[in-house]
Every structure is written in structure tokens, then in C-alpha cells.
């Protein structure tokens, strides 16, 4: 049993403390006041908090990580923003701690080092069917070309389930000795806005979308190699368009209504659960109009994203009808306690499953 589970103490029927984080109805955030938020986000990162290149696999496939100093911002969109949807409000102040984020979306070149590699985790736990376990801990072969004709070399990985993205991050952490994971929804929006308050990180004019994003008007209905468009002010590419990007969070339409408006909430995250299906995907994609690319725009996964999968049972790795979904990784400078041992919700159905990190 992990230390975060060991530290679980029930306070009431709906409020929990998990490793120092307050959990209310599944919504986790670190206890704070305005003073404590300022103190924690003002903390200077270590001297090595700078861009770096990680290389993975036998082919030494590189990807670059960009340091983003923590701070406070208004999460969500204002009522008057054109194209705004109800789930983007109300706006509320949020503070995030410093972290690195992938300069680009995870590509097939990177993901292939995971799902096509021979060096896979070994299993502990004799009570678990090895065949069933293998289907949970590593990708199974798709029934068709996994790129669906979008291309592979330098292209963002697509059709990846939330479970697959989280397991890739866990594999990457094991291989590198660094703590990689999906961004929280708050971290993602903070990084996308990059200090701006406009609908897009490049301003409020959707006519400029073509300079920064692949979307419905210029994509020709396919993904494109990462980093071909202009980056946002913090040097991150394709935060608008190309593929929508998974966040850790469960998607809940009215979740923003639980946050205070008079003080910043530190490091909020709505943890995934086996009892909740939908997860957050951000940024819009090659298939969206400019309104769907806005920094505050939200999307919840839908079961129709796998409707074309002929396999029975349907794959927990591949979303056959979601050619617009991918992800990018983050690495926190200091991980919040409730995310230290975060796992895909599928593992909540297999409590005997343990992976030996060799």
C-alpha cells in the first residue's frame, strides 16, 4: 500500500485529508490562505531549473522540457468572452507551483519507445491472471493502423486513452528516474495562457490562429509535425490546435463553482476515479474551429470516442474514434502529495497489481 493511501484520514462523509491535501467530493487542493499561496509560489526553484533535453529508448529519441515558474492566474474565461461555454466559469484565482512542461506534444517517435519496446515492466502478485494484467499494464496491438493515416515521423501520438497516457508517464518516470506525469488542468491552462488574459495566448484575434495552430481551416483534416507553428510566449508549441491534450483531471462541467473567488486555490485537481468516466482534454485540435482553440476551452472525453472499435472487450489503450486526442508531459519541481502515487483508475479495479520497477 502506498504512503499516500496509508495517510488517508477520514474527516467526514464528504471531506478527506490525503497526504496534506484537502479532498472534497473528489476535488483535491492544498490548504492555503492568500498569504500561504504567495509564500509557496514565490519560492525560488533550484539553480538547475532550466530547459533540458531528455533522451529515451535505444534510439535516444530526444524531447525538450521547458521550465515554468509557478504563479497565480485567473482560471476560466470571463462571461463576455466570445464563444465561452458554461463549463469555463466562473473565473477563479488559482496558484500553481513551478514545473517543467514538454516543449511539444508527445510524438509517435517517443511513444513507440514505450509500447513497442521489449523492455516492459515485470509483474508481481501471483493472484492476478498474467494475461489480464498484461492488458492493463502495457498497450495491446490495435486492430488497425494506429495513426489512421495521419503520419508518424515527428507527428503527435493520437487515439490514446487517458489510461495509456498515464501509463506512458509512469514508464517514462521509471526509465529516467524523474517524476513525469500528465498536467493538472490548472497547470495546463496556466502554461497555455503564459501570462496572458486574452482568449488565446497570441491575443484576442482568431484570424491569427493560422500562425500558431493547426485547426479546421488549415490542417487538411490531419495532424502535423510538432513545432511547425509559432510557440506561445513561454516557448510551448501547439498549445492551440494540432491535438487536444489529456490532463490528469476528471471532467466535471460545474467543477469551477466549488472554488472561492476571493482567494487563490493552490494546486487544484479533480482526481480520476473508477466511478467517473470522463476526463479533461485541452487545447482544441486539427478538427476544431478557432473558438475551440481558446486557452480556457474545456472538453470532456466521451464514450463515442471508441465507438468504432470492433474488439470485444473494447481496448483500454486506443480511442479509435478520437484521432484528435494526444498529450504532453510535465515534471513538477516539487510534487504535491496527492499526486505522488497517482495511477490510472483501471488499477483501482485491480488492487493486487504491483509493478516491479526494474
Please give a structural write-up:
This protein is of the alpha+beta class and 358 residues long. The chain starts with a helix and ends with a strand. It has one domain (3-356): paralog of FGE (formylglycine-generating enzyme) (Alpha-Beta Complex). β5 (52-56) and β6 (61-68) form a beta hairpin. The model is unreliable at 1-25, 31-42, 120-136 and 350-358 (pLDDT under 50). The strands form four sheets. Strands 1-2-3-4-12-8-7 form a seven-stranded mixed sheet, with helices on both faces. The protein has helices at residues 3-6, 34-41, 108-115, 130-137, 162-176, 185-193, 209-212, and strands at 9-10, 15-18, 21-24, 27-30, 52-56, 61-68, 71-75, 92-96, 99-102, 122-124, 244-250, 265-270, 279-282, 298-300, 325-326, 330-332, 354-356.
What is the gist of this entry?
The protein is of the alpha+beta class. It has helices spanning 3-6, 34-41, 108-115, 130-137, 162-176, 185-193, 209-212, and strands spanning 9-10, 15-18, 21-24, 27-30, 52-56, 61-68, 71-75, 92-96, 99-102, 122-124, 244-250, 265-270, 279-282, 298-300, 325-326, 330-332, 354-356. It contains seven helices and 17 strands.
Amino acid at each position: 500500500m502506498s504512503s499516500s493511501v496509508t495517510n488517508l484520514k477520514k474527516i467526514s462523509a464528504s471531506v478527506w485529508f490525503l497526504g496534506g491535501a484537502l479532498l472534497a467530493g473528489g476535488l483535491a487542493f492544498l490548504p492555503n490562505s492568500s498569504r500561504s499561496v504567495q509564500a509557496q509560489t514565490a519560492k525560488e526553484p533550484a539553480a538547475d531549473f532550466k530547459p533540458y533535453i531528455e533522451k529515451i529508448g535505444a534510439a535516444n529519441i530526444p524531447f525538450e522540457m521547458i521550465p515554468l515558474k509557478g504563479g497565480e492566474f485567473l482560471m476560466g474565461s470571463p462571461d463576455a468572452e466570445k464563444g465561452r461555454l458554461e463549463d469555463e466559469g466562473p473565473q477563479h484565482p488559482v496558484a500553481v507551483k513551478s514545473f517543467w512542461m514538454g516543449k511539444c506534444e508527445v510524438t509517435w517517435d517517443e511513444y513507440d519507445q514505450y509500447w513497442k519496446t521489449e523492455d516492459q515492466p515485470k509483474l508481481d502478485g501471483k493472484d492476478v491472471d498474467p494475461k489480464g494484467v498484461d492488458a492493463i499494464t502495457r498497450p495491446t496491438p490495435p486492430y488497425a493502423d494506429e495513426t489512421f493515416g495521419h503520419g508518424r515521423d515527428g507527428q503527435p501520438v493520437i487515439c490514446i486513452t487517458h489510461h495509456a497516457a498515464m501509463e506512458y508517464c509512469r514508464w517514462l518516470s521509471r526509465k529516467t528516474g524523474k517524476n513525469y506525469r500528465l498536467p493538472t488542468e490548472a497547470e495546463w491552462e496556466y502554461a497555455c495562457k503564459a501570462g496572458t488574459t486574452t482568449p488565446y495566448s497570441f491575443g484576442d484575434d482568431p484570424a491569427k490562429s493560422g500562425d500558431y495552430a493547426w485547426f479546421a481551416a488549415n490542417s487538411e483534416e490531419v495532424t502535423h509535425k510538432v513545432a511547425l507553428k509559432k510557440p506561445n510566449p513561454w516557448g510551448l508549441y501547439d498549445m492551440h490546435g494540432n491535438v487536444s491534450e489529456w490532463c490528469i483531471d476528471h471532467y466535471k462541467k460545474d467543477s469551477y463553482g466549488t472554488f472561492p473567488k476571493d482567494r487563490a486555490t493552490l494546486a487544484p485537481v479533480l482526481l480520476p476515479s473508477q466511478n467517473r468516466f470522463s476526463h479533461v482534454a485541452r487545447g482544441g485540435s486539427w478538427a476544431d474551429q478557432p473558438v475551440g482553440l481558446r486557452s480556457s476551452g474545456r472538453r470532456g472525453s466521451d464514450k463515442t470516442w471508441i465507438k468504432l472499435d470492433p474488439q470485444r472487450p473494447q481496448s483500454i489503450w486506443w480511442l479509435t474514434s478520437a484521432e484528435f486526442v494526444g498529450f504532453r508531459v510535465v515534471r513538477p519541481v516539487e510534487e504535491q502529495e496527492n499526486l505522488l502515487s497517482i495511477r490510472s483508475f483501471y488499477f483501482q479495479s485491480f488492487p493486487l497489481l504491483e509493478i516491479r520497477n526494474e
